[in-house]
Automatic annotation (TrEMBL):
This is Cadherin domain-containing protein. SUPFAM superfamilies: Cadherin-like (SSF49313). Residues 307-320 have a biased composition (Acidic residues). Keywords: Calcium, Membrane, Transmembrane, Transmembrane helix. The keyword Metal-binding does not apply. It comes from Cryptolaemus montrouzieri. Residues 25-124 form the Cadherin domain. The chain crosses the membrane at residues 229-251. Residues 274-332 are annotated as: Disordered. InterPro entries: Cadherin-like_dom (IPR002126), Cadherin-like_sf (IPR015919). The keyword Membrane applies. GO terms for molecular function: calcium ion binding. Coiled coil: none annotated.
């Protein structure tokens, strides 16, 4: 008798459509169980009503599913400019019994376009079947660390290594509000924090999932990203300081140049200064200094006075005109 209905696990499925996938790549595998022994491994899967968002306009149907194994594969290839996601229901039907009793149950599948920059690599010290079995619980545990960001985690794939006895799984994260992928650097920027990583490790250990250290490739890339940001900030700060120093140097240099110009001999003793016509001794200067030593007397008036004195000194001894009579311009 057909006494049981099929049950999906998990209740909702998410798949990552990577840009490296082709039409033979399995994006996600739909799994269901049935309590009737004759239905175990003998269920029928079917896709219907595919809708896509963003700039996705694939051919119809965009995806197909294995009738018996539940493997979802694409019928189109994505390009680098594509983004968005596709959603569709998947029906699972068991086999009718002699009385014609049959059960059909539906679940929802969401296929997200994911780039390599959106994938975060986790290493679990568990077998792959244990990781798959607790996939939904693992995702919920990881989501706790990002509850303030409204990020949801999803496992894209998993690979078991018999040599090292661990499972490498790639996770991607979606913003639950915009339903858009979150870059891996944003996730690693949080999880590489020692306290958060330690807390996540403890929480996963409570469900017997043991998280290993992040692969060096993840950490190195994260460090490089932060180094780029640091270098950009440092360059901006240094450029700003250089600009401030240049402006300060310009105004300081102009002020000093003006002071030197004002104190120069030529300027001080020039006709424009007015000091040569003042007829007074400048403070702290020697009135009897020779020309060039005292800029006050470096003038045409002073030179004429010196020439007049020379003329007086060269006049005749009995002359009362102080040598003026020897001047051809003097008319008696």
């Amino acid at each position: 008798m057909n006494d049981h209905i099929p049950i999906f696990y998990p209740s909702k499925f998410y798949g990552a459509f990577l840009k490296t996938y082709n039409d033979k790549s399995t994006i996600v595998t739909i799994t269901a169980t049935d309590g009737d022994p004759r239905d175990e491994g003998n269920l029928h899967f079917e896709i219907s009503n595919i809708t896509c968002t963003g700039n996705l306009h694939p051919q119809d149907p965009a995806f197909k599913i294995g009738e018996r194994d539940g493997k979802v594969t694409p019928t189109f290839a994505i390009t680098s400019d594509m983004n968005g996601y596709c959603m569709f229901p998947v029906n699972v039907t068991d086999n009718p019994d002699p009385n014609g009793t049959v059960h059909t149950v539906s679940t929802t599948v969401q296929i997200n376009i994911i780039s390599d920059d959106d994938l975060v690599e986790f290493v679990f010290m568990n077998k792959d079947q244990d990781v798959v079995k607790l996939q939904e619980t693992i995702q919920n545990t990881i989501d706790v660390e990002f509850k303030n960001y409204n990020y949801e985690s999803f496992m894209a794939d998993d690979v078991y290594s018999a040599e090292y006895g661990n499972t490498t799984a790639h996770f991607y994260f979606l913003d639950s509000i915009t339903q858009t992928p979150v870059e891996a650097s944003e996730i690693l920027g949080n999880l590489t924090d020692f306290e958060k990583f330690t807390q996540l490790k403890k929480n996963l250990a409570r469900i017997d999932i043991y998280l290993g250290n992040f692969p060096s490739s993840n950490v190195v890339q994260e460090v490089m990203d932060y180094m780029k940001i640091w270098l950009m900030v440092t360059t901006f700060v240094l450029a700003s300081l250089l600009m401030v120093l240049s402006i300060g140097f310009f105004f300081r240099n102009r002020a000093l140049t003006q002071r030197i110009k004002n104190l120069s001999t030529t300027k001080f003793g020039s006709q424009e200064s007015g000091l040569n016509r003042a007829g007074v001794a400048a403070p702290t200067t020697n009135k009897h200094a020779v020309e060039g030593s005292n800029p006050v007397y470096n003038s045409e008036n002073y030179k004429q006075e010196i020439e007049a004195e020379n003329d007086s000194g060269n006049s005749d001894d009995d002359s009362d005109l102080f040598g003026v009579e020897n001047n051809p311009e003097f008319d008696i």
